[in-house]
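thought: fold this chain, then report.
action: predict
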Amino acid sequence: MVGAVRHAFDYAPIIASHPRLELVGIAEESKADLWKIDLAQKLAKKCRTSFSLVEDALSRKDIDLVIVTTEPTRHATLAIQAIQAGKNVFVDKPVATSIADAEKLAKVIEDRNLVTSYFHRLFEPSVERAKECIQSGQIGLPLTLDLTWISANSLIDEGGDIIIEKRLSGGGEIRNFLGYPLDIVLWLTGLEPIRIFTSSNSITSNSHAASGVENLATIVLELESGVRANITVGRGPNNGNGIFTTSIVGSHGFLSVNENRPTLEISSTLEDIKSLINFEQENFQKLFNLLLNDVISALDGKKQVRRTLLDGCKIARLIDTAYVSASTYQPVSVDFGSLPFKAV
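observation:
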């Protein structure tokens, strides 16, 4: 694991207990701030494993997978270093915090045959079932989508200054959370994004306002075939369960996903059905294990990962486009520039 700045203390015990993985060390850059090095050393001690500098760790022949868990603004550059060292890579979200970093990362990935992935929510059982409903044609063609990702976690629980200091986060809650619903929209519909309009503010958070970053945003994403997704992301009260929902209106029905109380509601005129499916509450450990298993299956050569870092670069570019729209308060056309792919 490279870095221990944000989610590393949650990820490390899960990795260490995984039957197919051995956590052989925690690494940090020699040029990193002392507090970052201190965190990495503390995590290494907690996990009873070694601490080393990144350059030394990447030179080891016995390492198959590098997991990048620094603050967001270093995700891309450290992923690039690992890939250039010939390592398979899993990156915490967001994959990159600038267009330049996303393009550099995509170029490095394109030149090498390695397994890469990042943290996403596409293994949520109700989201997977929603995908099946759409593919089977139960609700017809998707027409409009409404998604809400409002975290109710406190700022301290989520990482404090790492969330609101641009030097560390690369932005506010758009950078922090928008990737989740964007991934869901593109995966469920299979459609290409055309245009983004964003409105954001920080009026409900003094901490965000003082740091000049947003804590709430609404995004309208126009897709191919006239499909539109309305997305709300941000951070709500410091207690409660948050709001994590996805609703899709189709040409012959609708479906609604509620991840807070995992359910999938389906209504279809094609099959004259109306049903409510309940799912067992997924804890974080189980969901993260699903992501790890996805990577391990790819390393075994059994299948492709559900999301590669190229997909993550695409999401990062969309997030940057949302920020451009927020700053100008104008719709902005999606342009993937030199990113070496089109379809998700």
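thought: worth noting. The chain has a mean pLDDT of 92.
final: tokens above.
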